[in-house]
Fold this sequence. Notes:
Two copies of one chain form a homodimer. Chain A contains five helices and eight strands, in the order βαββαββαββαβα. By secondary structure, chain A is of the alpha+beta class.
Amino acid sequence: MSNLSSCSSACGTQGAVDVTGCRFSLYPMTDQFVEVIVSAIHKLNTEKVWAQTDHLSTLYRGKQLHVIDCVRAAFIYAYQPNLHMVSELTFSRGCPGDVDADSFLNTDDIANNLITIPQGKNIPVSAKISFYAFGVDSYMSHIQHVVELAHKYQLSPQKAHYVTMINGSASQIFAYFDEVLAYARQHLPHYVLEATLSVNSPSKVMEN
Amino acid sequence: MSNLSSCSSACGTQGAVDVTGCRFSLYPMTDQFVEVIVSAIHKLNTEKVWAQTDHLSTLYRGKQLHVIDCVRAAFIYAYQPNLHMVSELTFSRGCPGDVDADSFLNTDDIANNLITIPQGKNIPVSAKISFYAFGVDSYMSHIQHVVELAHKYQLSPQKAHYVTMINGSASQIFAYFDEVLAYARQHLPHYVLEATLSVNSPSKVMEN
Lengths: 208, 208
């Protein structure tokens, strides 16, 4: 557990730093959930991110491209064709109380995992996302832009209460997240992207 | 799926309405996840909330006390002593594009489920929460207040990157959520409380 003050916690007032982070969890709905999670995490190359696992989630911090690379790879490694699995991701950057500790920023820009695994083009994903921008009056316009970007990746965004629903391959969805975060980094001091990804949901059963 | 514009989606500009909502999901890590979820949902009395289930989550909208009552009861009904389960909850109120449709506001204040089930005093829960306030410059001070409130409920809040970790019984945690939302409703035009609750996590295994 970090002792650092950070966001949604007890932030200080120092300037924001250029660390992108993602706190993520995998929820495989199987009796073998431990094996699925541990096996996926152990396959990752995490040498270009600061990494920490606790009893609720795993946290990666560093350059945006490496953070995305690691969570995409973890999701793809954990995926099994007949297994219902949900993954919860919280991307964040710019909390006023954040610090540049707990991060690796002096790395090159070669995504270590992407070059060794498939991009997830054949993994169909249903997801809900929420984009939050802080400290600006125009936050709704940034949300609107993020939703519009989903069309570019053929994710068919659908409005719903509190979230936007999207559908696409894992490859499309993580590429979309990458562009959303790049847009946010360029335009906003502090933002959060919350996403929940679901694969192989027996939705017809669940909706009855 | 609702066709309404709502938050993190494509909000309009009409005034905010007094509807509290919660989008929540249950993730039981078992081969029998469908039975666990469906059984819990069917036990609920949801006559005082507007309810909708899709392939990703269930949504309740209405008065705050009834929304809390339903998600607490769903969590308690789904709980099993030896089953690792995670629940993801997004409480929200005040999106500029929200509307008072899809809600039940003309109800009494008697919590239907709480009077028929235990409050969850014997269910130990580990959770992470993030509180987000929008459209105000002082958002960090409201986050700070929400974190401080956790002490009142003996939840031992711990700072971590992007979230605050809390620990307590299900009863304590939902009572805390109720007070957080009451505080937010009084002080903020638009807010979101994201929470992830975990029970029976084999954390020592997972952290190795």
